[in-house]
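Quick start: read one record
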Amino acid sequence: MVRRTIAIVAGLIVLVLLVLAVRGCLNERKESAMQDYVTDANALVQESNAESRSLFRVLQGPGGQDQAVNTESALNGLRTASSGLVDRAEDLDVPDELSTAQRYLLETLELRRDGLAGVANAIPQALADQERRQSTAQVARMMRVFSASDVIYAGRYVPNLESALDDEEVNAEDPVESQFVPDTEWLDPAFVADQVAGIRSGEAGDQAAAPGLHGNGLGTVTLGGVALVPGGSATVPLTGDLAFEVQVANQGENTETDVPVRATVGEGGNAIAADAQLDTIAAGETKTVQIPLNENPPTGQNVPIQVEVEAVPGEEVTDNNVGDFSVIFTG
């Protein structure tokens, strides 16, 4: 009788331990799934942020008749890319605990997709001689759509995501900050009309530079920790978090702001474009910009890469703003 009792107790203990072990595995799996979701969602939002920078760079670009086709082509490219982001967001593996946050993320990206489609559709007429006013007004209305996406992202997606992570006691990456509309002045239809008129006339983006020497230079460039040498070839293993580290040196006498830095991997229609923006860099200062590479380039062959620091207003010498490299990516 005593032996039977001991056996039963031992069996119960084993059963409890098995239940605890299974529950622990399930908890670890759930935590890992939630962490993976945040990482994947952050990558999509970073790409959306890059689309914002590209859009407003186009809307404040040089313009003019010779640039009209390039402007339309750039906007169509952004429309296609934003639609792809929505498709990828729909394919995310979403834990049940994050389903509400996912709904708001999709709504954010869908609004941005629709806004970019609206701008791309309106710009050809806005730059033409006919129906100019209505099309320009359409561009202005799309700014409200972008603003709505910012409200949903900051006011719905981020709080719901953080609340769900806190409830489950999951440590994950912080949500990426995202504001598609860079400044409230873009919500003013008159301001938008001025920008569109500038594109049409070729006078957009003209900015008075402060007195003194202006100019940035491209410094060292690394990719995945591997230093790239201009004109040379390097071997870089493909990883999930591959990113450029681009050094920018202010060689002028003025503080520069909002300096775009771009990396183009490959050539032609299959090229992968990635960019980031240096918010501010003081005269004589050197800063490093990180540009994530969110698409996989081809492996086992020399892939041309160009890295460029965009010229700032008043910069006259740009010979050292661009670097050309070659990389063999390995799987």
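The chain has a mean pLDDT of 86.
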